[in-house]
Design brief:
Radius of gyration: 16 Å
Oligomer: single chain
Structural class: alpha/beta
Protein name: 2-phosphoglycerate kinase
Strand order of the largest sheet: 2-3-1-4-5
CATH architecture: 3-Layer(aba) Sandwich
Keywords: Kinase, Transferase
CATH class: Alpha Beta
Number of helices: 7
GO molecular function, one term: kinase activity
Number of domains: 1
CATH topology: Rossmann fold
Largest sheet: 5 strands, parallel
């Protein structure tokens, strides 16, 4: 099984991947590590860390797709998390491969962002990975990013979870969904 976790930066993808690793003993790959490894290894890799999610996603997706297919072919489990898994990429897999992929797309509602921007979103954006740079996005920019991500998810028809009020309560529903889907996939 391959669990794919995608969301706008600062939504809790890496924390979720770490929690799933601890619960299921499935390793995870942070796409940020892949991105920085490629960039630090070859400054002519076709992107910089400051490029848009779409530009970097286009460059990284063929590599990620190959990693996903290799794990499926070898019947190995992995969690891959990062904002560069764009919702429409899920359609790149045939039905047989799709049965072994569990995509999870997360977002915050506008209301959640407005009420929790500084006290939770900015405060906990470094819960797992240390980022030395301060949050540069404004509240308005973050709302726009989440709104656009939600629209992409709906357009692609992927399973989508939006945190509306209480992160801790609502994220438990996502973990329950993952557990249920994992049981179904394990029984195949």
């Amino acid at each position: 099984m391959v669990i794919l976790i995608s969301a706008v930066s600062g939504t809790g993808k890496t924390l979720m991947a770490q929690n799933l690793l601890e619960k299921y003993k499935i390793p995870y790959l942070s796409i940020d590590h892949l991105k920085m490894g490629l960039y630090k290894g070859d400054k002519n890799c076709g992107f910089t860390p400051l490029d848009s999610t779409e530009v970097i996603g286009v460059k990284l997706w063929p590599i990620l797709k190959g990693i996903i297919r290799t794990n499926i072919e070898n019947d190995q489990h992995i969690i891959i998390e990062g904002c560069y898994i764009l919702p429409h990429y899920i359609k790149d897999f045939d039905v047989q491969d799709s049965e072994k992929i569990l995509p999870v797309f997360l977002s915050f509602s506008e209301n959640y962002i407005q009420k929790n921007f500084t006290s939770k979103i900015v405060k906990y954006r470094n819960a797992i990975e240390l980022r030395n740079l301060p949050e540069k996005r404004t509240l308005t920019e973050l709302i726009k990013e989440h709104r656009e991500f939600k629209a992409q998810c709906l357009e692609a028809g992927v399973k989508y979870f939006e945190i509306e009020k209480d992160y801790h309560k609502e994220i438990l529903k996502v973990y329950d969904y993952i557990a249920t889907q994992k049981r179904k996939m394990d029984s195949l």
